[in-house]
Write a structure and sequence with these properties.
The chain is an alpha/beta fold. 37% of the residues lie in helices and 24% in strands. The protein has helices at residues 14-24, 34-37, 40-49, 61-69, 85-94, 127-138, 156-159, and strands at 2-8, 28-32, 55-59, 78-82, 101-105, 117-120, 123-125, 143-145, 154-155. Strands 3-2-4-1-5-8-9 form a seven-stranded mixed beta sheet. Strands 6-7 form a two-stranded antiparallel sheet. Strand 6 and strand 7 form a beta hairpin.
C-alpha cells in the first residue's frame, strides 16, 4: 500500500528523508523515475540521501507500478516518490491502494518554460503538467499540496479553482 505518493522535483532530499519518512512511518521508499532507474550517478545520490534503516527501490515508472501491484507487498506501507505530475497520474491510474497524493514541489527548477503556470509558491507547472494535475484532481484519491507535515493539507482542487 502506498501511504503517500509525493511529487517532488528533488525526489529524496533532507526534508523527505528526515521529516516525511518519520511522519509516514514507512519502512520502504520507492522512487518511480525513468531517469533515476537508468542513471547510476542519480541512483548513488539517492542511496546516500536515504535514511539508515529504510529500504530503497529505484525503478522506472512502469516497473514501480508492478512493484506497487505485487500482492507480496500489499501489507507493506510504502512512501513513493516521483518528480513530475504526469508520472504521478500514470501511477494513480494503474495502482489501486494509494492513501494520498502530495503534489509538493514541482517545476520551480524547470529550464525556463515560458508557458508555466504558478499554482502555489511550490508549484509551477507547464501546460502538460497542469492538465495532468487536473486529471489527478478528478480521481477518487485525496490529492493535496503539503510541503511539510506541519503545514495544512491544501486540496489541489482549491489551488486549481482559477486555472
Amino acid at each position: 500500500m502506498i501511504a503517500q505518493l509525493r511529487v517532488d522535483d528533488r525526489l529524496i532530499h533532507g526534508q523527505v528523508a528526515l521529516v516525511w519518512t518519520k511522519e509516514l512511518n514507512t519502512p520502504g521508499i520507492v522512487v518511480a523515475n525513468d531517469n533515476a532507474a537508468n542513471n547510476q550517478m542519480v541512483q548513488m545520490t539517492l542511496k546516500m540521501a536515504t535514511p539508515t534503516g529504510k529500504k530503497l527501490l529505484i525503478r522506472s515508472v512502469d516497473d514501480a507500478i508492478k512493484v506497487f501491484n505485487n500482492p507480496k507487498g500489499a501489507n507493506m506501507r510504502i512512501f513513493a516518490l516521483t518528480n513530475n505530475v504526469k508520472d504521478a497520474l500514470k501511477i494513480a491510474q494503474n495502482v489501486n491502494n494509494i492513501e494520498g497524493i502530495n503534489v509538493a514541489n514541482v517545476g520551480r527548477f524547470a529550464d525556463g518554460a515560458k508557458d508555466s503556470v504558478q499554482i502555489s509558491s511550490t508549484l509551477m507547472l507547464s501546460k502538460d503538467e497542469l492538465e495532468a494535475l487536473k486529471e489527478l484532481a478528478k480521481m477518487d484519491i485525496p490529492v493535496f499540496n503539503q510541503v511539510v507535515p506541519s503545514n495544512a493539507k491544501t486540496p489541489i482542487k482549491t489551488l486549481l479553482k482559477d486555472k
